Amino acid sequence: MHQHTGPLGLPALSAAERLFIWGFRAKARSGGAVPTAADIKEVYDHFRVGDAVPSLESIIEIFACTAHTAIEVHCPTCPRMSDSEREILSAIAAAQQDRVDLAREQFERWLPPVGADWALAPVQGLATIFRMAGLILPDRHVRSFDHDRMMAMKSWLVGSPTLH
Questions:
Q1: CA distance 76 to 34
Q2: CA 94, CA 110: separation in Å to the nearest integer?
Q3: What tens-digit pLDDT sequence spans the chain (164 residues)?
C-alpha cells in the first residue's frame, strides 16, 4: 500500500483518478456554464464509462441532500486536490476493490449513516463501470484529516470557501 506523504495533485494521478475527479468536480459545480452535462457525458463516453454518469449524479445528489459536513471541491481545472477529494477518491477505489465497509466508513465523514448507505449503490455502480472499462483506481493510503476543522464547516452556503 502506498503511504501518502505530501500533496498529491492531479498531474500525479492515474488517468482513471483524473477522470473521476474531473467528473465529480464538474457534476458538483453543474450550475456553471462549462462543462455542461453533455460535455461530461461526452468525455465519459470517450473513455467507455458514459453509463457511470447517472451514478455520479446520484452520488452528488446524496451529498447535496444529506451531508452533515461540507466537502471541499475544487473547480474542474484546478491542479490541486483537496483532502475531501482525496478521501472520496479513496472511497471509490475501496469500492472498486470490493471493500465496501471501508468506502461506507469514509462516506460517514460527511454523511449520516443512512446517507452513507444510500451512496453505496451508485458508488459500487460507478466503480464497477470504471473497472470494466479497464480504469482501475489505485489503492492510495489517505492521510487522516482534521476532524474538528471539518466539523466546523457545516454550511453549504453559496460563496462557501469550500468551493474555488
A1: 9
A2: 17
A3: 334 444 568 889 999 999 999 999 999 887 666 788 889 999 999 999 999 999 999 999 999 999 999 999 999 889 999 999 999 999 999 999 999 999 999 999 999 999 999 999 999 999 999 999 999 999 876 544 444 444 444 334 434 444 43
Do 15 and 40 form a contact (C-beta atoms < 8 A)? Answer: no
CA distances from 10 to 68, 111, 162 (A): 27, 25, 18
Q: Look up residue 71 and give its amino acid.
A: I
* DSSP of 91-151: HHHHHHTT-HHHHHHHHTTTS-HHHHHHHHHHHHHHHHHHHHTT-PPP-BPPPPP-HHHHH
**Phi, psi at 87, each rounded to 5°:** -70, -40
